Amino acid sequence: MDKDRLKKLLANVRDGKINIDDALLSLKSLPFDDLDFAKVDHHRAIRQGHPEVIFCQGKTVEQILAIVDRLIAHHNTIMATRATREVYEAVKALHPSAEYNADARIIVVGKKSSEQGKGLILVITAGTSDIPVAEEAALTAETMGNRVERLFDVGVSGLHRLFAHMDKINSAKVIIAVAGMEGALPSIIGGLVDVPVIAVPTSVGYGASFGGLSALLTMLNTCAPGITVVNIDNGFGAGYFAGMINH
User: Which residue in 42, 241, 48 sits closest to 146, CA to CA?
Assistant: First the structure.
């Protein structure tokens, strides 16, 4: 929103021509930076509580750097997902505060939000091969200001490993369950807890898993209540949704 329009809006609020709620609604619709190849949304934090996140896959390094520059000028913390180390090195050269998690493929620039979530988000994987997707979920939730703990490699091929951690599982406010292969883990967890479970199918598995489709269908067809499902390998979506629930 340009300065003249903002001044007019504030003047209308002061003069009683528009109420605070309508003014906030107007602010939520604008502005954005038009970079030709991208429309950088600076007011997403007002509408949704957190700034726009950069999805790096398919973008050039130059495009990513331009978007980072615009976002960091308006927000204390920004996040870029599906980032390569090449992208990270380029971002860090301009923004030394940038940090990179190679497993999650996430770059965080600036300070993480202080912990404001109401409880614990627990990220659980069926196997070690699911960790990269789980880390994307965990780091997303942490960057949004949530307390996150991890519980890895406790899948259905050895359920005693899962049951050995029931105290931690029962202490969580939200659970993210990440699994490939047959994708059964979220159904098991969903039948044990009284909190939301976010199921994340991964593309881990042999040919008949169809790149995660088998796990996705298993999770969508779960008979356990209280489970929602995100797309294949979408750790970011799971972490973001868990953060919203926890806030």
Answer: 241
Q: Which residues contact 227 (CB under 8 A, 6 or more apart)?
A: 186, 187, 190, 196, 197, 198, 199, 219
Residue 71 zone, left/alpha/beta (φ > 0; ψ -120 to 50; rest): alpha
| Tokens read off for 81 | 């997902």
For residue 197, give the 3-state DSSP assignment: strand
Strands (E), the chain: 32-34, 39-41, 54-55, 77-81, 99-101, 106-110, 120-125, 147-151, 174-179, 197-201, 227-229
User: Pairing state of beta strands 99-101 and 174-179?
Assistant: unpaired
DSSP 8-state code for residue 34? E
- 150-166 pLDDT tens trace: 999 999 889 899 999 99
Predicted TM-score of the model (pTM): 0.82
Distance CA 124, CA 185 (A): 9
The pair of structure tokens assigned to 11 is 């003047």
Euclidean distance between CA atoms 133 and 151, whole angstroms: 13
- pLDDT single digits (tens) 166-220: 999 999 999 999 999 999 999 999 999 999 999 999 999 999 999 999 999 999 9
Confirm if 121 and 174 have CB atoms less than 8 A apart. yes
